Amino acid sequence: MTFPDGFLWGSATAAHQVEGNNIASDFWVLEHVPGSRFAEPSGDACDHYRLFREDIALLAELGFTSYRFSIEWARVEPEDGFISRAAIEHYRDVLQACHDHGIVPMVTLHHFTSPAWLTRLGGWEYAGTPERFAAYCRTVMTELGPLIPYACTINEANIAMLTRRMIADMTGTAGGAEQAPVGVARDEAGGGRDWREVGAEALRTTPDNLNLFLFTWTETGLELITRAHTEARRAIREASPSTKVGITLALQDWQAAPGGEKAADERWAEAFEFFLPAMEGDDFLGVQNYSRVVIGADGLACAHPEGAELTQMGYEFYPQALENVVRRAATAGLPVYITENGIATDDDERRAAFVRSALEGVERCLADGIDVRGYCYWSTLDNFEWLLGYGPTFGMIAVDRKTQKRTVKPSARLLGDIARRNAVADA
User: What is the domain extent for residue 314?
Assistant: First the structure.
């Protein structure tokens, strides 16, 4: 495989999923309430907060040239207006470790979790959230900007739209947000109490204020998310003009069965075109893709093709989706970084096959003149997968959760070798 000079070869993590003990965040609280919809709490996670130096050194040893990770807002600002100097210095150390090992850091400033205090104010339905998020970004970039060449403001800014559609598919309500139930936020917590009520009580707020980023799909919430991006971009540029700024979007390869063409196009418009105005002025677009979704004539996702290979997440094994999505996303006119692409499986040979096939698609995009500048595998480590706990294994590196011992999988060596061969070719 041949890729252009300077192409970034990376892997990705998110703070809450790997660092451990993110106690000031909304998710930490909700993981521990009675009747929690989380399969298990995150706990120590992968102890990456302590072991980041070893992990970054391992990536460099394997041949990777980039590392995408998130700075945790709840650590930097654990209470409204209070900035933790210890957290700032910790992330300075993480960034410096990247540079010391020749790893280009790509930082995400919000990856699903938010400070618990923000949720008490109303979370991602609170009118002041964009300003508060921008202020946090300004603080981070004022302190650390010279060490951050690439900043993603919000991870998967469109994720609530995808969640809404998934629930609509499950319930047969193709109309989307207006007809889709809140789902996990409405399940019984035991004792006749609604899980949303229990969670709100634990966060010292009301159920109406329990507006988590992952489930913010009202028009007000979506407008606030896009405004948070544009205001954060402005703050980042003012504090660190040399930092390239973008957003990441979760993009399925929506394919139409006969009669489903209009509905498939609507899904793409909802998940991608809706965000085009907010992306005007961005330096790049982060594309995140894992599979395809086939849309039937009724406007709902169809069952997987008979005999299709499925991942641990229930996705179809379909690495070809990445090429299709990159081609469509490139119409935004921005350089593309593939900020997440991967597979949850306990069969590492299938992970290696997935990566090879996905990269062949990227290579074809490049051959056709599409401006793709990096590939980042999700994820670096077997980590905490949100509501599903530690069941799904996306990582190229296994983690023994009792000892925190890392074990490199062959797929990591495969991707690292591809990166190394291209680096030699560039030289």
Answer: 8-426
